[in-house]
Fold:
Amino acid sequence: MLSPTRLFRRVCLLASFAFAATAGDAAEPAPATKPPFPYVWGKAYHVLSGTHNNESGYFSLVEGNDGKLYIGTAKYGENAFLVEFDPATEKQRIVIDTKKLTGATGKGFAAQSKIHTKNYVGPSGKVYVGSKEGYPPEDEKKANDISPYPGGYVMTYDPKSGAAENLGMPYPGQGVGDVVADEARNLIYVVTCEDEYWMVYQPKEKRFRWLGPELFEYASTLVDATGRANAITKSYQLARWDPTTNKLTNQDIMVDGKKLELPRDADRGGWIPSWAMTPDAKTAYLIRMSHPELYKLDLTGDIEKPVSAAMVGRLINNDASDCRSGISIGPDGKVYAAVAVPNKKTYGDHDQHSHLTRYDPATGKIEDLGVLAVQNKDYFDFKPGADGKAPPFSHGFKPLPDGTLTGQYQPLGSIVTRDGSTYVLFLYPYTLLRVPPL
Structure:
């Protein structure tokens, strides 16, 4: 099984960033009497009840070719589901039951507790996802008897046929953190976790192959216009594999002639990369989790030469920002990201305020569009029960002084769909927020 260090790495990482995001200065400014920001209004939906048990999920969100959304959930110690959300009818249903599809029988830490992948949709319309472990239950930790995790599975769902398929386990003992398919070349790329091994699956042979090298935490694969696979390595280089020549190289990322590299004393969590590729697959935009600088990477260069990049600006002017929900490129060609910043108790007592930001490559303009807010406050029953207590795991949303309901923690996923709508995932309760085209 995984070492104790690996086992609790994700828990410690998230905990450290929750503290870093909420820690304020000793002398805080006086509270504002009115919101110091505009609102970005959206309609909220509670993600299908019964598919999660702690009102949580992660950045597992994608738009299918059919216009429906596919959302991964976390049911700790039990199971994980892929939920389909239809924007036209506003209805939800389960399309992948991981336990049922894979035949997994593990419970507790051995269960397939999360679909944590960002999810991917190929030209065929198939949705590609993966499962992983959750956290060790308290009873297992107290007994010092944590169940071995067998490993996660790569799975697909085909909206056309309604069929789900289990493609197998890439690496025993490792969860699946990312899945991307190159359907034209009949290849599927996988990043495992807790050790980020870079794998490729060949459906005809039905086998997984380890590409190497070890990638950065929460790394993901982009397939460029020439069919080369790209990923950020543990040392913050760009790993590139050309399936035509079977050649793998690691290249420095050069920003205006200077190498983009992780300082020795840097907190690795703050450098977790999120990136997205332009429709022509020639350019990628990248942001690090705790650094608001947005980088533009040229993916057209020679596989053996350093990668040319430029810093196009800061998505928000705050050195304590948190962007773990990913970035997305809209149909207008603009780059969107949901970024949380500490409140410092200047307006309400939220830990953080979540802003929707946008970069326009045509003009170079960066906009802070405002704080994401819920227009339909009755989408979830927040009222206390007979015991006077709020519903379990409902603490992620609360009203600001003017009555506006907003999330108080970091968004966990965000995408822009083909119609220009922005969808954002929040925790506690597990919420999908739909913002109309801006």
Summary: The two ends are 48 Å apart (CA to CA). The chain is about 5% helix and 40% strand.
